[in-house]
Design brief:
Chains A, B: This is Pyridoxal-phosphate dependent enzyme. Chains A, B: Keywords: Lyase, Pyridoxal phosphate. The structure is a homodimer. The termini of chain A are far apart. Chain A has three domains: about 5-60, no CATH class; about 85-105 and about 210-375, Rossmann fold; about 110-195, Rossmann fold, CATH 3.40.50. Chain A is of the alpha/beta class and about 400 residues long. The model of chain A has no long low-confidence stretch (mean pLDDT about 95). In chain A, about 30% of the residues lie in helices and about 15% in strands. Chains A and B meet through helix 2, helix 3, strand 8, helix 4 and helix 11 of A and helix 2, helix 3, strand 8, helix 4 and helix 11 of B.
Chain lengths: ~400, ~400
């Protein structure tokens, strides 16, 4: 089944439509103002969606993103088996959507399959992105898979394992000063013919108009696996692309008649930043905030996006902020149940534990975005250890410290 | 559907049978000799396997290991969504079974779901393992998930990201000298009531008798996804548990009448070790070899197992060895197609590229075991980078070096 995508439309005014091609990667040229750049989204011929798209089908049907091809832009770039991640049930019944089970071990693969597909379909000569880690490596992987060169603008201070990750797929990796990044991205687009798969706008985040469509598949998978809508979903939130995409997926399920209402969506931002919380508090469409110290480097964004506001309004949701200590507690709780995530990835569970209702009427899902290998503490020198003596007392002391002596 | 497991039997003599419980974790007490310790395997009531187990079923059926419960020992420990990994097709048509898509990002999760289940079902007080990385972290994750304490004996010289990984799940991590490991493991078993999920024998590897059963599911998944048997399978090989398990899975498919013959199985060991190649060359049931320098630390084993010999004989396969340079070339080839694996994980593709027939009559599958985050070079200080100047010439130079300038 091929894509039913029809047009791009402005989030600021749904009446403002643009053709599907080329992807408008710098926000809506009609509705954006000096104050707020407005993202575009993709619209579809919803009346032509197959009625059985969300019902059970046999195991020989396409898996991952291909399963949802009618409700995605054309998947012109080859995939790596992204999507189809498990819902793992914690001991108290909360579900964790484990997005570390994607091809580059984060949710970003869903976005990049779609955004790199857009680049391939529109004849781009390469891919350019700026990223603190997961997004850049994922973009590089999908570019490599599609046979396109890739330029990444990254922080020179990435955690050591993440630095290796960003360079793994053969991209040109650049650690220029932050203020030079967007001008150089734009030049890479205009002079080299590359397509940007992260935001080129300064005053508010817009990003690739097709990218968040990939995140809709998280909502589809949750609905298909639970057999119903969850009551609430908690997500780590930086620029709000994940939040927007997942919310849009649930909204489409309602629009298509498969469920009665959208789950409450909770955006979980680091307390050290919180651009969406600030926008909601002040009634603006997007906000800029100072960023304080935090180890949640994947989501400590200084600018927000109108996408986040749209998602929270559509779902009667809320913007929550969580401290590093709350995220660390959530990360440790997940590890104690066999799931190792990076600090930012635990923001969803942290939001639930710090602010969540104990009495949600239905399943509660926390989206966990990326593996512990990307944590800022991973592979730092103080996590190394030296040799220990080989006697039984050493074993007993270590076992006792870990709480493993029989009672 | 519940498990159809019936007994444990010796690989050395199938007539030598033991009850299914308790798991005999130190090899067969009847058939083992001073020269070779023989592993046990699990037997099943094959005449009671449902006829439709391997045919397509709807998407609401159990996923991952649960799908194959009749042909596994009882899955008494809770899972983390292991298994169900994708087959990714390289540009030349070779398939890569991407085992980095498991809960702790390696194939070991299939083994540990089964082995920790055996520990839970037999009333163990904890889990003990020795490991260079993936196996230990996976054992710790499944122990945590099951609420059991875990003791890991690991190298003090693990790569820095792997050191963080081994400690992530709350296990007691011990870096005692190598010669002290097995005596201390045995004492942990006898004095603390823990169950060993890695080998306790010195003269040949035996390991947990239930563990390799988990690897059978790789064969089942490949068969179900391709809709036929592959012609050949290339696997990274250390102690041969993966090789044995996958081969057993294919053998069962033939036994159950779903296919005519078992694929040729190719064991790919580092040239710096190669215990299985040595056993095959000398006609022995297991060999010990000196281990030379290699970065393939996940599979540089000094002792082999009779499991490997059994698997190669059952499949008319062969033991291949690959150099670090051949593994590095295979790792780079995979990364250039969007797949980042650790060096050891690329041994399968390296074996195919170095020794494989170009004319296999049917699909060829390489099993790739674990993510690039575990590579010995990952997060090493020489992979770090500093700031760069923010001018266009810096971008152009980097793009040119990466081969990304439009021609």
């Amino acid at each position: 089944m091929t894509s039913l995508a029809t047009t791009q439309r402005s989030l600021a005014d749904h009446a403002v439509r643009h053709p599907l091609w080329p992807p408008l990667t710098a926000g809506c040229p009609v509705t954006s103002t000096d104050e707020v750049a407005y993202p575009l989204e993709v619209d579809y011929a919803y009346d032509r969606v197959p009625a059985d798209l969300f019902s059970a089908r046999d195991l020989t049907a396409p898996r991952g993103l291909e399963r949802w091809a009618p409700l995605l832009p054309p998947l012109a770039a080859p995939g790596l088996g992204e999507g189809g991640t498990p819902l793992v049930r914690l001991s108290d019944g909360v579900y964790v959507k484990d997005e570390s089970r994607n091809p580059t071990w984060s949710h970003k693969d869903r976005l990049n399959r779609v955004a790199v597909s857009a680049a391939v379909a529109s004849g781009a000569r390469g891919i350019v992105a700026s990223s603190s880690g997961n997004h850049g490596a994922s973009a590089a992987a999908y570019a490599a898979r599609a046979g396109l060169p890739c330029v990444l603008f990254v922080s020179p201070y990435a955690p050591p394992a993440v630095a290796s990750f960003l360079r793994a797929y053969g991209a040109a990796v650049l650690t220029v000063p932050l203020e030079a990044v967007r001008p150089l991205m734009r030049r890479t687009v205009t002079e080299l013919g590359y397509q940007a798969v992260s935001s080129m706008t300064e005053t508010a985040h817009t990003g690739h108009p097709f990218g968040p469509e990939g995140y809709k598949t998280i909502a589809y998978e949750i609905f298909a696996e639970l057999g119903r809508m969850p009551a609430a979903v908690y997500l780590p939130t930086g620029y709000g692309e994940l939040l927007f995409g997942v919310t849009k997926g649930f909204t489409e399920l309602v629009k298509l008649g498969h469920a009665g209402s959208v789950p409450r969506m909770y955006a979980c931002e680091p307390a050290a930043a919180g651009a969406l919380a600030e926008a909601m508090r002040t009634g603006r469409h997007a906000a800029q905030v100072p960023v304080g110290p935090t180890d949640a480097y994947a989501i400590d964004c200084a600018v927000g996006s109108y996408r986040g506001v749209v998602a929270l309004e559509a779902s009667d949701g809320a913007a929550l902020t969580v401290t590093d200590a709350q995220m660390a507690a959530a990360r440790d709780e997940l590890a104690s149940q066999g799931l190792w995530f990076e600090l930012s990835s635990a923001a969803g569970l942290a939001g639930l534990r710090a602010h969540g209702p104990a009495d949600a009427e239905g399943p509660v899902v926390c989206v966990a975005t990326s593996s512990g290998f990307k944590d800022i503490a991973t592979a730092s020198p103080d996590t190394a250890y030296g040799p220990m003596p080989g006697d039984w007392d050493t074993v007993l002391a270590a076992v006792e410290k870990a709480g493993g002596l029989p009672g």
